[in-house]
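Hi there. Long-time user, first ticket. I'm pasting a complex I've been working with (about 737 residues overall). I'd like to know whether the download I got is complete or cut off, because the file seemed smaller than I expected. Thanks.
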Amino acid sequence: MPELRTETMTVNMGPQHPSTHGVLRLVIELDGETIVKSQVTIGYLHTGIEKTAEQKKWQQVIPLVERMDYLAAQSNALAFVLAVERLLDLESRLPERVTKIRVLLMELQRLSSHLVWLGTHAMEVGAISVMLYCFRERELLLNINEMIAGFRLFPSYIRIGGLREDLPIGFHEAVREFLDRLPPKLKDYHGLLTKNRIWEKRTRGVGVLSKQDVLDWGLVGPIGRACGLDYDVRRAFPYLCYDTLDFDVPLETDGDVYARYLVRMREMEESASICRQLIDQIAPTGEWAVDDPRLVPPPKDRVYTEMEALIQHFLIYSQGFTVPAGDAYVPIEGPRGEQGFYVVSDGTNRPWRIKSRPPSFLACQALPQLIEGGLIADVIAVIGSTDVVMGDVDR
Amino acid sequence: MNPAVIAHLVLIVAIFFALQISAAVLVYFERKIAARIQQRLGPYRVGPHGVLQPLADIVKLMFKEELRPKAADTWLFYLAPILSATAAFAAFAVVPFGSETTLFGLLDQPIRLQVADVNVALLVVFAITSMGVYGIVLAGWSSNSKYSLLGGLRSAAQMISYELSYALALAAVLVLANSLSLREIVEHQAGHWLGVIPKWYVFLTPVGFIVYMIAGVAETNRAPFDFPEAEQELVAGYHTEYSSMSFALFFLAEYVNMVTVSAVAVSLFLGGWFDPFGLTPEWLGWVWFLVKVSALLFFYIWMRWTLPRYRYDQLMAFGWKVLLPVATVNLLAVAGLVVWWG
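Hi, the file is complete. Here it is re-exported in full:
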């Protein structure tokens, strides 16, 4: 019998594809449905944020960087702000209340980001309803954002030197309502997915990474913790008030899609527990920024009545403030892993250069290794489990 | 003309339209039930509570431009949806949905509520429903598009993994009823054991029923076995390149197929038009038939919006390694039962 001639098929998955998290493009070579070779192509969402930031005054960079990882806007903002505050040597002068509010917002942001991850991940594996359940809970978090800043996705509430303003009335009640509502819902998600045979079959043993791979690719964060790499910036290099809080760092060892799922699910529980500890410690009103007239604009009622306040306001909003020359990098634990900005200042009122360390970008590098040898259906499960956000990849 | 012939012709036309309407109704209910499951409202704008939404969808599809990829095989491209839809409709012809009626004395001879009482109905169902898959495979092949091709291939792979167990589940019923005619199979299920338990085959061969339902989900390409169109993986699978009415035909075929598979399941395992309590008059049998079919359809919809999707190689493994042995053992057990008790 003559041997049949076979050839591989090249499929362009994305940038327009329902499950590539926006505009990720995978050029995959298929033998049947098995992926022989794959190539990740990025750049379809390039926004030039890092370059644009060089033309903005320090405070104006915050809304820009928030738009990078658009599912975790406040994490970007905090990473940038912490680096600038290190240059300004503000860290020790920050009021305790501000650090606590920041940590609370970070954990709420992590919950919000993980809820979107869970929803889209489950939807891509086929459990469509979970997506709507997750977005239902996330809606409450967006409402909290709207309450504190008037914006739902990009609050720009965290500012250099503190916060934009004091917490609004009703903030504590809204957060408590959400925290009361979350545990039963998380139980529902576990019920729908964790012990679901189909879910396990689709995710167990798929997209496996070893601890060494994770170290090689620099995938520190939930992906690393799913491979047994016990590293969490919140514990390794505590920032703000994380060293005073009581929380666990979830760890799994399998390194597959299911392990990543379990790690993120348990992270949600831990985040909620951190929020519960903090919400009682934060007074409804109090200090919301450092006492530094160079950085923090005066309250509006003083601007309208006092000459000095008006001048101060005018200076801050026209020429901003200068940051001492130097460079700084402060890592934080974002929802997708270690995240930070390397900020260089030349002593003027604008950054000379900012460079982000985007966890999604690093995860994209590991994608070929994760998907090669698997099936098309696995590609979707793997992309979902790495939780890449294209805004974070193409700055 | 003989009034019975006219009545029969009317019946055929009525069933054809009833099936089409059932697809529309099913689309509406699927969207509403999905909405309830997901805490949404679902269609609400077109007509009261959105009841006219399926109509609006059809009108929209009719006014869409019919597109054909340049590289597609013209004949097969247009044949595929027709094949799918025809198979879906044709299989229903042998399903009895009620006993006999004289239409309140209009006819001298009672007519049977069924398009055709074929004595090999079971084989007809099996043959025709399998034809529907060819529509999908051809669509995937003729579109000359990569995602469509993958969808078509998945459909073929899926078919060989469930058809055998599907046939064996049917064979168990065949052994029990000693007949291939669906009407006779249903009539065998009349009456009650001990005066309470209806003599349905689902109680005699529950395993067969489960195997049939699982294979039926694969047959109709519904979640969790909706690989050929898996929108998160293959964009739209086999119908990626279809638009307008040829897409509508695939859509129609999917829903009519669901109705047919459920109707066959009701006839084979759930006592057809017989009511479980033996209280309602026999001419109301079709109502019971409708109730049972709706219950199964609800089950299909419920499952789709709850479960994640299998992977097609996992379905193949499941079909060959679990479903087939189970169906074989079930068939042997049923045969033993029949031999033992006669």
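A couple of notes from our side: Strands of chain A lie at 9-13, 25-31, 34-41, 158-159, 162-163, 326-329, 332-334, 337-345, 351-357. Chain A has 16 helices and nine strands.
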